[in-house]
Amino acid sequence: MQREYDRKFFIYRLEVINKVFFFMDGKVQNTGTMPWDNPKETESTDFRVGIMVFKHGLPWPPAFEGRSFFKDRCLKPGETADFSFCIDVSNVEPGWYTIKLNILKEHSYWFDDAGVLPDVLSVEIPHAGDHEKGDVKRLKHPGKAKIMYIAPTLPLYDQESGGRRSLELLRLLKEKGHEITFLCEAFTREGPAEKYLGKMESLGIPVFRDVKAFLSGLKGRDFDVCIIAWYECAHSYLNMIRAILPQAKIITDSVDVHWVRQERAQAVGELKISEEHKKLNKEIEKKAYAGSDEVWVVAESDKNEVLKEIPGCSLKIVSNIHRKHAKYIKDPSGDGVIFVGSYKHLPNESAALWGHEICRRFRTATGKKITYYIVGPFPGEKITALHNGKDTVVTGHVENITGYYKRSRVMLAPIKFGSGVKGKICHSICSGIPVITTDIGNEGLGLVDREEALIANSTDEFVDCLTRVFDGKIDLKAMNKKALSKILSIAGEQENLSVAESSLYYKPVVVVVMARDQKGLLSRCVDSILAKTSYANYKIAVLSNGCKDGTKEMMTEYRGKFKRLLDLHYNEKPAAFDSSVKYLIKKYPGYDIVFVDVRLEILTEKWLTYLYNAAYGSNAVKAVTGRIYASLGGEVRAPSSYMIYCKRDALKKIKDIKDIPAQVAYPLEHMAVAQNDMPVH
Fold first, then answer.
1. Number of C-beta neighbours around residue 534 at 10 A
2. pLDDT 10s digits, 313-346
3. 70 pLDDT exceeds 80?
4. Residue 209 and residue 82: Cα distance in Å, rounded?
5. Which of 138, 190, 307, 312 is deepest in the core (most CB within 10 A)?
6. Residues 6 or more apart from 579 whose CB is under 8 A from it?
7. What is the pLDDT of residue 8?
8. Is this prediction's pTM over 0.85?
9. Following DSSP, what letter does each residue of 475-541 receive, concatenated?
């Protein structure tokens, strides 16, 4: 029903939705009384509908404000325009509020400054409740997850590494049958959006531009998982999503850890920022990660940085995603060097400028002529000033980069600062072009110097590397072949998809307990597993290995009580431990397996969930364990006692029980330290 509050405004809807959204929409009309009817006002002057909302009895300051921009010119007399507001009020104190609604000009003065009073309305904002992190539900079995993905823009896959990674991840999840809805604040940062919208349409992923309007229309449990890209988006929407979809798992995808990049940029003099501003940014980012159910990072180094600041934060490494290029250059032999990036990203501009100096010094030192190709969108004045069309070529945006790779012998990536895995380095190697980079550029990849890449950290070192390359002293083909293998093990499609999907649902896990005439210990062990396991998709497999002490009869009783959870296996005669393990691995295809010593009693709630999250925290980890205590008084790392969680792909490689310690030697020790809140007696 239309309500007219005066001649200018018509309010169609005014309500607080789901206790977290203040929503208002309506129409404004120029009845001939607006100030810009004055001939001194220009017709191109922008205007906005604005609101200020005050707690009753408190005339200042406003509890919250809003702006609705909808025209790039003035309204003519009699002309109308629609407006709407959708504002998060989840953190606003409950009670009655006064709303002042009026027109704002571009330079933000209120109409009452001109002697015209604003419209005044009232609304009650209820208590939103506590929306803290809790136990979230995931799909019990692999299948179609309903995923909401929120980002600042569409995946700008040809402009930035983060956009390429997002698109590849969305593609892989969609191909696995998951249902994805994409929300963004704007289609692009600038320029046309048709290409990027077309890519999303080709994947069958619907796109909605107004995030708040979409969220305000949700009712009930519409999504299983919400993935929010970049901490700024998480900061804006996390509380809303928590209130509207309390059962959904919220994952913040860091893309890279921004406070690390800012601190490094400041340290090398490439970023001017006040300590107060830097501290504020870091606190906002930390709050977004701490408020999420899980955080994705792209490298082990980023993971460690977050854990320093937020101990106990649930983290997984979902790296950049790459595959060997169809037009892979088998024998790089071009006469140039190349750098690729988007130059709105400060680390790329810095690297390109340093690269120009390195090439200049190389030419002076050796007399060799090489062309330096600076490829990628948004080159600023500093970059474009380097272009001379001869020894330095600044291309701008290039749709197909293969031609420039063919003209190049190496990728020169002198990156001074940044964080996470560098997509340009992965893409170059996957295209057949070896890389010379810094320790920062090599972060998260661990390329071995002089075997898989060339690592340099000063101009002189870079000049020396280029000299060896163009003197033919390095087998670039062999070097890049090794680097490609390393890149695909870190940034491969299936490796990262496996980690991402582990966040969407519980993979099936079987907890194996083998016993031989240990009835009392077996009963205690199984009872503790049943009591302490909240993991949603597990079962227990008990193997009675030639028991004669009544184990079979006891476990038959257990089976009657816990039929869904308990499988029983019997060896009439004692069998070798190795052969029993092989039998159980074969018996449970598709399952991860946890081997639990019958002498252990599980003490920690959610022990299996902790192990699962640790195992799938990175595709590099194949198996994990927890701390084992001889008593509550102290830890014992006794080789005679074991508890090992093995991922399925690790089990495929195990031919003998003796292989297990070798397969998990490093992750065992590493995770035993990391998971010190997981004692097992």
1. 11
2. 889 999 999 999 999 999 999 999 999 999 988 9
3. no
4. 17
5. 138
6. none
7. 59
8. no
9. -HHHHHHHHHHHHHHHH-HHHHHHHHHHTTBPPPEEEEEEESS-HHHHHHHHHHHHHH---SSEEEE
**Smallest Cα–Cα separation from 141: which of 498, 505, 501?**
505
Upstream peptide bond of 61 is cis (omega within 30 degrees of 0): yes
pLDDT in tens, 566-594: 888 888 888 887 788 888 888 888 899 99
Q: Which residues of 213-226 are buried (b: 16+ CB within 10 A; e: fewer)?
A: eebbebeeeebbbb
Torsion angle of the four alpha carbons 314, 320, 324, 330, in this order, in degrees rounded to the nearest 10: -120
Q: Please choose, from the candidates 151, 380, 376, 421, the residue with its C-alpha nearest in 3D space to the C-alpha of residue 260.
A: 421
pLDDT tens-digit map of 520-548: 889 999 999 998 888 878 999 998 888 88
pLDDT value at residue 629: 65
Q: For residue 533, what are its two tokens? A: 């396991």
Task: Go through the chain and tell me how many residues it has.
Answer: 681
Containing 353, the helix (H) or strand (E) segment is helix 346-366
Looking at per-residue pLDDT, the higher value among 443 and 623 belongs to 443
CA distance 612 to 624: 9
Backbone angles phi, psi at 623, to 5 degrees: -155, 150
Helix orientation angle between 346-366 and 459-470, rounded to the nearest 10 degrees: 60
Query: Closest by alpha carbon to 355, among 432, 471, 272, 463?
Result: 463
Cβ proximity of 100 and 120 under 8 Å: yes
- Where is 180: in which H helix or E strand? strand 179-184
Backbone Cα Rg of the chain? 30
Residue 216 phi/psi, 5-degree rounding, is -65, -20
Cβ-Cβ contacts under 8 Å for 630 (sequence gap 6 or more): 636, 638, 681
Backbone dihedral region for residue 428 (phi beyond 0: left; psi -120 to 50: alpha; all else: beta): alpha
Task: Report CA-CA distances (Å) from 390 to 76, 322, 351, 353, 522.
Answer: 56, 32, 20, 17, 77
Cα–Cα distance for residue pair 236/246, rounded to 1 Å = 17
Residue 414's pLDDT is 97
**Residue 166 CB burial class (10 angstroms; 0-12, 13-18, ≥19):** buried
Tokens of 68: 């609705």
Return the pLDDT at 226: 95
CB-based contacts of 110: which residues, under 8 Å, 6+ apart?
Answer: 50, 102, 104, 118
End-to-end CA distance of the chain: 67
Give the residue with greater pLDDT, 106 vs 185: 185
pLDDT, tens digit, for every residue of 242-301? 878 878 899 999 998 999 988 988 888 888 888 888 888 899 999 999 999 999 999 889
